[in-house]
Amino acid sequence: MNLDSKAKLFITSRPIPLWDDWDFLTLPLMSSNEVDLEAYIEVEVSSIAKRLNLAAPEKADLIKTVTTASSDLFLLANLHFQSFARNRTKSRLIKTAQTLPTTPGDYYVQTLERIHSRGTQDPEDTEAALAALLWVWKAKRPLYASELSEAVASVLEDLTGRPVESSLIPEHDILELCEGFLHIVDGIVTFSRRPYSPRIL
Question: Element (H or E) spanning 190, and its range?
Fold first, then answer.
């Protein structure tokens, strides 16, 4: 990047803990190289087309849809493909593609709406997911998966009156309840896609 300035830029795709509580901070989203983004989308859609046996016109429509919804951002394209990974049928894929958000903020809000919507059928699932997200967000140090499971169980104990031991949720179930917001690396739970502001939670 050529700048007529001596300013130094630090560009990272990883969250910076120091900024976690700076709600007023606005971070610019940098657009991707159009050719690189098109190549990335082509590769990912080709993989989906093979998995779900999409016809050529369906594949072309999906490429066009993702390209438009990604707004020239690799971040958004990647988030869209993470959503598609949970679609096991062609009909579900098409339904997901029809409602793709066009900004990262909208994506996070839409994901949280899905988490909240489960509460009408199973309130404990929603409470467990939100508790897990807030624990990982506010923890002063990285949490092990087993620690997060116990922390979520303690929240459920307060809500249900059941002892912690009978409220423990398996680690992989917590990840599923959180709709892909969290993942586990070497036993440590981290955000796989971290919302820009705790206000979203």
Answer: strand 188-191
Query: Following DSSP, what letter does each residue of 159-188 receive, concatenated?
Result: HH---HHHH---HHHHHHHTTTSEEEETTE
Question: 64: closest CA among 77, 51, 78?
Answer: 77
Residue of higher predicted confidence among 62 and 16: 62
The Cα 133–Cα 174 span in angstroms is 10
Name the DSSP letter for residue 180.
T
CA distance 143 to 152: 12
Mean pLDDT of the chain: 82
pLDDT(103) > 90 = no
Instruction: DSSP letter for 89, please.
Output: S
Q: What does the chain come to in residues?
A: 201
In 10 A of CB 100, how many CB atoms?
19
Comparing 14-23, 65-74, 88-97, 137-146, the range with the smallest average pLDDT is 14-23
Residue 180 φ/ψ, nearest 5 degrees? 85, 0
